[in-house]
TrEMBL record:
Record keywords, A-Z: Membrane, Transmembrane, Transmembrane helix
Protein source organism: Ostreobium quekettii
Protein name: Betaine lipid synthase
Matches recorded under CDD domains: AdoMet_MTases
Pfam family membership, one: DUF3419
Domain of life: Eukaryota
Tagged with keyword Membrane: yes
Residues passing through the membrane, by range: 468-489
SUPFAM superfamilies according to UniProt: S-adenosyl-L-methionine-dependent methyltransferases
Length: 673
């Protein structure tokens, strides 16, 4: 008999359910084969476009929706993106050109209630598809949905439309110029046009659209057999006649066709000059630089409080900074500066900052706190698809489409530095120090924190243990945990920076001992040191968090300060050349460079920083070699802090650099450069 219950009254139920399931699968496969037969073996016939559509779709109209659900990958992102932009429009009018069976209307209800629309028009030239749409409207009880059997090139609603969509239909309209022109003619001034379709690029196209010659030839010829023209002309015409505000280029699988993935795109645009004064950065289309497919830093790892003491910011400042985790870029906006340009050559760091900025702009404070305060959100997938993805660039979308699990596992144990902190947490657990870790992070006072720190057996061993034994243990730990591989991929310390530390005659173990001991002795983690608190706990608390996560500051950013942020994926020098600046934050960027590259940056700073402007940087070196370069390029340089000074054992809340410098651009070069 084996398991209990196998001989009971429900013994035959699983077998019956399996048979019903197999019968359902068989029926679905049969319907799919009907569609595939029409697509692969039938040929459109007729004297005009309407009759050709009818001959093609009539045999498969009843099975159209199920098969296309696993083939037309662009529909949902198009509907999510367009619905997000018209949520605040009262009594909106939507025209779905080439709307077929009305499936788009059903899908739209996932993103916005259909009662939001005053009228929805499903327009199609194919009689069989329109009949299916009419059945659906009746079955669903949609009172504001109208099926119109008409040519998209001629149809016009009785009122202006707030949304016009072409869902895999523009490629099947031969006079596509006329269809686009007609749609524009009745689009409201604040309305949007959304298009999703298959595509091939032109030979010289935008970087993220670009394809090889073979893919261009192969896919265009395949679709051409069904009178579907997926050439670049249609999207080029949209770009020419409208303002593109959002775009995504992807590829998706084809049912019953292994390995091949068909290219598809989503394009959203609006009338040119319709939103005068409105800044929309989502339209930026660029090719991401080559970089590891994750972020090194899940948070900014430099103390902005120390920066504010020397930057002397004003409302007229245009400031350039490296993005890193993006927290400090947002903090700079809160200082009321004119513009913050945040650049990083790692597109993953850009994606992280863009997600933070978009979340602030589009979500309530509670959701933003869960995402970036706690590092977890139970509804991240829904929130991202509905509210964030429609307003983010393609590069960032492609990153987060596959990385939302970071907000399920914990953002602050993700990325290279996050993994290192996660490994430290596991090590604490293996050593029986979990309780100590929690007590240290949540000590009520700095005095209590010091007491806990000084009683940790490992700290006591390194401070007071036998010197020879301490030396042996340090050598072993350096070999295992503090080697160059771990420091680079876990801590973001490249080889050139590692060598700067060695050049000062400081071992990496001594360097880190000063870092951590200085913080533990002088900075209260639970109420003030957000950097180490988050690494110990995997989250922030309301007392110890970045400025943008404090509710009052969040509201200021949402109210308009975000408009002063420019986010760029690219190289620092390119953004430095692009405009003049009054303030530049180098972080430890120049530590990573060889002398020739450092000289190039310094010369650019001399040309692009306005007289009186300030440049600040930190270094792993006590006296970095590029200080003299800065002086010769027209700057007065001052060392603000050096770790070998008695009063600099604890420099700031991060405490991870050996020196901190500020340089002020002189009014004239005085023969330097």
């Amino acid at each position: 008999m084996g398991r209990g219950g196998e001989g009971g009254p429900t013994a035959g139920l699983p077998r019956k359910m399996s048979f019903e399931k197999l019968k359902e699968i068989g029926g679905n496969v049969k319907q799919d084969l009907i569609v595939l037969k029409s697509m692969w073996f039938s040929r459109s016939k007729g004297e005009d476009h309407a009759s050709r559509l009818e001959s093609f779709y009539s045999p498969q109209a009843h099975a159209y929706d199920r098969f296309r659900a696993s083939f037309l990958w662009g529909r949902q992102p198009m509907l999510a993106t367009t619905s997000a932009r018209i949520r605040d429009v009262e009594d909106a009018v939507w025209v779905d050109l080439g709307g077929g069976t009305g499936e788009n209307v059903d899908m739209m209800s996932e993103y916005i209630p259909l009662k939001h629309f005053k009228a929805i028009y499903i327009v199609d030239l194919c009689h069989s598809l329109c009949e299916q749409a009419k059945k659906k409207v009746e079955q669903k009880g949609w009172k504001n949905v109208y099926v119109v059997e008409a040519d998209a090139c001629e149809f016009a609603p009785s009122t202006k439309a707030d949304l016009v969509t072409f869902s895999y239909s523009l490629s099947m309209i031969p006079p596509f110029h006329s269809a686009v022109d007609k749609a524009i003619s009745y689009l409201s001034k604040s309305g949007y046009v959304g298009v999703c379709d298959f595509y091939v690029s032109s030979k010289y196209d935008l970087p993220l659209r670009q394809m090889s010659w073979f893919r261009r030839f192969f896919w265009r010829s395949i679709f051409d057999t069904d009178n579907i023209d997926i050439g670049p002309e249609r999207r080029n015409y949209l770009d020419h006649n409208m303002e593109r505000v959002w775009e995504y280029n992807g590829q998706g699988s084809i049912p019953y066709v292994p390995y091949l993935r068909a290219p598809w795109y989503v394009w959203v645009g609006r009338l040119k000059d319709a939103h005068a004064g409105y800044t929309d950065h989502e339209a930026k289309v660029e090719a991401p630089p080559l970089f590891p497919p994750t972020f090194l830093y899940n948070m900014s790892w430099e103390d902005p409080e120390a920066d504010m003491d020397v930057l002397e910011l004003s409302e007229n400042d245009r400031l350039l900074t490296l993005t890193s985790g993006g927290c400090n870029s947002l903090n700079l906006l809160l200082q009321g500066v004119k513009e913050v340009v945040s650049v990083d050559c790692n597109p993953a760091q850009t994606a992280l900052l863009e997600l933070k900025a978009t979340a602030i702009a589009r979500l309530p404070y509670e959701d933003v706190w869960k995402m970036f305060g706690e590092g977890r959100h139970p509804q991240i997938d829904r929130i991202y698809r509905h509210h964030l993805a429609p307003f983010m660039t393609e590069v960032s979308n492609k990153f987060w489409n596959n990385k939302l699990y970071h907000f399920e596992r914990g953002l602050y144990y993700s990325g290279c530095m996050g993994k290192l902190c996660w490994a430290f947490r596991i090590l604490c657990s293996l050593c029986g120090m979990t309780g100590t870790r929690l007590r240290l992070a949540n000590a009520k006072t700095l005095e209590e924190q010091r007491e806990i720190w000084n009683k940790i057996w490992m700290v006591r061993f390194f401070k007071y243990g036998p010197p020879f034994l301490v030396w042996i243990v340090l050598k072993f730990l350096t070999w295992i945990f503090l080697n160059r591989f771990v420091l680079w991929f876990g801590g973001g310390v490249p080889t050139k920076q590692y060598k700067l530390i060695q050049k000062d005659g400081i071992s990496i173990s001594s360097y880190l001992a000063r870092t951590f001991d200085g913080v533990a002795q002088h900075s209260h983690l639970r109420t003030h040191n957000l950097f180490y608190y988050s690494q110990l706990m995997g989250r922030y608390n309301k007392e110890s968090c970045p400025e943008y996560l404090k509710e009052a500051n969040f509201e200021r950013l949402k109210a308009g300060l975000l408009a002063n942020l420019t986010i760029s994926t690219g190289f620092f020098n390119d953004e430095l050349k692009a405009r003049k600046y009054t303030k530049v934050i180098l972080m430890d960027h120049v530590d990573w460079m060889d002398p020739e590259a450092a000289q190039n940056v310094v010369q650019l700073l001399g040309r692009q920083v306005l007289p009186g402007g300030r440049v600040i940087w930190r270094s792993a070196s006590l006296c970095p070699p590029y200080v003299a370069m800065m002086e010769s390029a027209g700057f007065d340089v001052k060392c603000v802090q050096r770790a070998d000074r008695p009063d600099c054992y604890y420099m700031d809340r991060v405490n991870m650099y050996n020196s901190f410098y500020v340089a002020v651009r002189r009014a004239s070069l005085g023969g330097g450069n």
